[in-house]
Every structure is written in C-alpha cells, then in structure tokens.
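To assess whether the prediction recovers the assembly geometry, we first specified each molecular entity separately, as shown.
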Amino acid sequence: MSTEALHAPPAKTERNEGQDPIYLRIRDLVYQSCGIYHSEEKMYLLIAACKRRMAVLPERVNTAREYLDMLTNPLKKAQESRELLNQITIGETCLFRSQPQLNALHNVILPEIAAERSKIGLKKLKVWSAGCSTGEEPYTLAMFLMEEKEKLLKDWIFEIQATDLNDNSVEKARAGVYGDYALRNTPELYKRKYFEPAEGNKLRVKDEVKTRITFSRLNLNDDSRMVFMKGMDLIFCCNVLIYFDEVSKKRVVQHFFSNLMPNGCFFLGQAESLFLVNADFRLVHLPGTTVYRKPGPDIPKVGKS
Amino acid sequence: MNTVLRDGLKRRVERLQCLPSSPAVLQPLLELLRQPSNRIDVKRVVQLVSYDKTIAAQCLRIANSPLYGRARETESIHAAVVSLGIQRVEDILMTCCLHKFSSGAKWASDSGVFWRHSLGCATVSRELADRIDYSDPEKAYLAGLLHDLGVLVNSLAYPEEYGAVLKTAAEKGIPLEEQEMQDLGFSHCESGKILGAMWKLPRSIVEVIAFHHSLQAAPEDNPVIALVHISDALCRLRGLGHGYDEWRSVDLAADPAWPALRKHCPQIEKMDLARFTMDLDAFVPRVQALVEAVFTAPKPEQPEVSSVL
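The predicted structure of the complete assembly is given in tokenized form:
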C-alpha cells in the first residue's frame, strides 16, 4: 500500500465506525499503553491501522471485537500492541510536519529566548531531535533556524543534535534524500534554497544544511549517555515515547527535563501527552499547539486572568 | 472606567435597544428560563419558537446540524423540542435571538467570527462542565454563548472605532480586551454587562460577562465564571477566537481559574488537560457547521414552518 493511501481522508463508513464502542476501547487501550490519543476526527487512522494488522495476522481475525480480544490476551498483547503501534506511526513523518509548532517557535518561543539571552549576551541555541528517524525533523528545524538567522537570530549560533536508536535510520538521515511524499509540506522557497536535485526525481539536502546537524545513534534508555546531552533549549521527541513502558518513559522524560535549560521547551507528537508521566513540566498552550516547558526563575508572563 | 465614559457607553447601549431587530421573544424566554426545569411548559416553548418564522426555521436547521447529532431529520418544531430537550431548545432560541439582534446593524468586523467564538465557547463550556462533573452544564453552555455579548455591543455601538480596535489587535496578535482598554478605555466586559442588565439576564450570566477577564475581582460563589474563562482561553488558542491568532504562551494549568473551580468541582484533579485540548480540535469543524446552520438562509423549497406545527 502506498503511503498516500494510508492517509486518505476518512470514508463515510469509517466515520460511523469511529463511534463503535469496540474501536473506542481500542483507542483507550492505545492511549493507556503508549499515550497516543486519537480524537474523534483521527479515529479513522486508528481503524485503518487495526485493519492493516487484521489483514496480515496468521490467526483469523475478522472483526474489531476479535482484534480487541487479541490486544487484551495476556499471551499476545505485548507483541500485538507493538505491531499496532508500528502501524499507527507508519508514514507519519514528513518535512514541515507541524506548522503550528514552527509558528509558535517563530512568534513566541524564539522571541522570548532571544530577549532573555540578550540580557547575558549569549547568542547560542541548542536543539535536540530525540528519535529523529530518517532526518525529516532535524532538517526542518535546521532550515527553519537558518531562516530565523537572517532575521531575529542574527549572529546567533545554533547546534542541532539528532539521535535515533536505529542505525539504518541514522544512515538515511545523514544521506538526506527525500521524495515527493516526504516533501509534500515543504514550501517551494525552502525546496529551491536548501535542496539540490538527486537521483530518481528526488531532492537532496544541501551540505550547508547538513553541517548544522550532528547525527548519532543513541538509546534513550542509556542513562550513561543521556546525562551528557545537557544545556538544551529545545527538545523534540515526537512519537517515540509511545514505545516505552511506564517506568522507562518516566525516567527518559526526567532526563529530558534535567537536560533542558530553565524555560526550555519540550515538544511531543501531536497526539501525545505527559499526563501521569511527569508533573515537573508545565503544559503551555499556544495557538494550534501545546508545549511542555521547564519552569525557570523568570518564566515569561503566563496565564492571563 | 470613569463616570463620563460609563454614562456615554450606557447611552449608546440604550440606543441599541431601539434597533428594529430587538428580539421580542427574549423576555418571555428568559421568564421561562427561571422556572425549575420540571415545571417548564413544552407547549409554551413551542409557541415561543413558532412566534417568529425566521427563528423557527433557524431552530430546525440548528436542531438538524451535526453538532446536535440527530439520528433522524427533525421536521416539526414540536419534534425538535421533544428530541432535543427543553434546555437545548432554550440554548438554540437564545442563539437565534442573538443572531436576530446582531443582524440588525452594520458590523465592525465579520459577524461570523463572533458566532464561531460564541458557539465554540458555549460548546466547549458544556463539554468541560460534563468532564468535571459541574452540576449545570446547560448553564455553562448559555454562559459561554453570552460571555462576549460586549463584543456584539461594541461592534454595534462603535462600528468605526471598533473595526480599528479589532484590526490593531489582530496585527499585534494580542488579546482583544487589551486593545479595547488602550483605544476605548473600557473592554467588552463593561459594555456587555450594561446590555446584560438591560436585558435582565440572570445574575450568574451577567457576572460571567462582566468578570471572565478579571477573575480576581469575580464573586467566589459563581464557578461558571472560571469555567467560561478557561473555555474562552482554549477556544482562542484553537482557532475559535476573535478571528486571529494571539501570539502568547498560556500556562493554563497555572491559571487562577482552576483553584476557583476546584472548590466546586473536585473532579478537576482527574482531568487530562492535554487530552481535552486535543479533543477540541475535533470541535472546530462541528462548530463551523453549527455556525453555518445559523447563517444559512432557508431554502425556497423548505416547507413553511408554521404549517408544519
């Protein structure tokens, strides 16, 4: 199946299925086990993922009810939940995936950081893309920050760390070659400015962008390495924590918290939350997006009343 | 606000009452609202709805809109009243009255924006009330619907000045009330309060109109103020605001509204605010559909409503 087909708009029948109590229970199960939440308008994605699993299972699983039984069966649930998660997150990634996040950075967060740093004359920004997969996120951030460098962040230096557990992903990320689907949200301006033609009608990220990023393999469960990722201003960890159990999730998030500078920001995937995972971060609302923020001594004015 | 300013504002608001579209069914409707719900006369409600043909047609369209999720198309006012329940019908009537009132004059800005925000805030308020086990979700809905009555007043009473206020606020990406204070010297809370009092709205609703941006001054015994304050903030951060993005970060969990609400609704501790926010994204298209239902002119082939009754 092509990736386009995975994200086709919901058909009418699927919309009705979206209110099926069985699928709603699967939704809650997924949310409890990994923190990914499918709101009503996103239910079709969950249902499509379940159906793709049902189609390839060796056991005969024809109905949502039977599939739910499988997800709750003590012998099978661990394996099957993981497979379902793989289906849920498949093909999710592309460059410029979350424009509201970039808007929030551009309009609120970076101006705040810039104002704060100018007081101490430190013009440096450290960013970490934790679980960078095949590089779409760190390249988006690099290009976005290069644009900012021409305006608000003039004379600033920025460092982007991009890490992933999977060696193959890191290799692909380093290569930085993308096709139409991964580039579907990328503005023309960026395509012209920061890419060059590559084989097979694809585009390759220019070296001037690549040099902004340090790619490496990192296991987020590796405490001895996690403690060295200090001094971050922004950490992005989208659709990664879903693969962790509750205990390790809490530990990893605590590492992120310690590694952030005061007032630093932690970005999760669009459907993820830190509810019951971490209470030290503050949930901050911005137009179209939410961010978790590490409290600082002089956190900018918040919560108007 | 000084006395001169307040008197001037009051006179302008009084003049608004003379608009040809002043909603005639509003007063009897509010009388009805004050009855205990088990004593409300369904017949009387149907009568009120049918009193005004435009309102009756609108009522049917809203009842059939996706937000109310009717399984079957409702064709008669009586059926609509029975299937929706009295409280919902009152919500709808109130919406129609407001619409009728607001359509009588020239707007300083796009009136659709005002409607999306009002209906959005009403819907979110009711949903929030449900989730935190607040005892009167319908009151929350009504309060959400009417909380920005002052924006309507300002738009009608100061069509020119207010257009500039909205434009500047949008350009700067700052909250509307801040720009109002700068340019007019008062906010929509003050002007809304005056109209609310003239319309003899219930005290609890007038308090929401007056204090939803100044919780520290709000009476403590009215949790709906805090509830609507939160819904209002969420709507404005999720594309259901005043027609533009406010570029600020809001630490909603640290908002003084929560402690104020917690006293009345201890359930709040168990609410996952991040998840509630995600759910809101699904509201936006439904609210849009409801707004369209309010605005769409009746189709010519639609049966005459009075004959259906």
